[in-house]
């Protein structure tokens, strides 16, 4: 679990009203005090995330959100953050109390999750009350004996509010005290199918077989993290090993020496996109070449849209609005790729007087219709669902979007070579190299 990148885990969001029991449920499922628990409404403010493992889902990220009915001074902002979580998660857990009828807000949020195609697991928080203490609309929810209470406590509630079953999968109820309930809920939750996860797709899907030699060019410059490699490089090395291939790693200037020392040409050379121009010149034409960023675009599932977006370069005019978006947050370097190098390369190719705007991390505008082009990073730190959402925003609003690696290859005149390993997967009619 600890070796699985956060972006590749299944993201599960927990939703419900204040004091519905979301935080308590998370603490029970994780068997850890992940979220603060209090009878005071609005205890959970900003979304709180925790990585863990739920079999058979495997490594997951669980996010606790603020109550949907938060009426505090900052409630509107907290609810807005909870709405943003919907766009990133693969699975939702919605918590209701069995002593309270579903409200209009509950139904609105459940339908909002459904409209975003997020699978919903509905948990009923079993509050220890008698039928006479329940809401007037829910007089029949307690009908089971103590012995089968853990498994069937929610049935009367669901019978009363049958419309819930058309929106969510009712996977259980709990009194938050039973280890049996915890194991049962983990098993039920693990049986659901999350939305937009990578599944069996990998970075090197179909590109490497046992015994293949793959050369990785990993420049160590001011942007490289101290003492380690960046995530796409680490993921690629691991996949080569998983496929019983041979991973050879070098910096740009060592590439000719490495190629001269191996008796057979490598199956593929993969480079950091920033070194595309130099690595292209150093790699013989009969050896396929691509970049980590392009592999990430393919891994996230929308390489064709990102390749098609590069055609917009030919139509950029002075004053054109261009959004450069990075999925991670980091301290800007003097030679930062997004804020320094890409603008420099654009200018060298004659794209002058552009109006450049920048976003990073979770920030990405919903309305992108005013941009003439979006240039997005490889998105190694974003979930596939988040990447698909951003690309879909652009496509639906008619705004071209391109990936760092695809853009840099195009600006250096080597796009055809850089995407050649994937041509069989692309619709060649939709773009020009």
UniProtKB/TrEMBL annotation:
Segments forming domain Hydrogen maturase F tetramerization: 306-421
One GO CC term on file: cytoplasm
SUPFAM superfamilies noted in UniProt: P-loop containing nucleoside triphosphate hydrolases
Hydrogen maturase F dimerization domain residues: 203-301
Database matches in CDD domains: Era_like
Presence of the UniProt keyword Lipid metabolism in the record: no
GO molecular-function terms, A-Z: GTP binding
GO BP terms: tRNA methylation; tRNA wobble uridine modification
This protein's UniProt keywords: GTP-binding, Nucleotide-binding
Name this polypeptide is given: [FeFe] hydrogenase H-cluster maturation GTPase HydF
Organism for this UniProt entry: Veillonella tobetsuensis
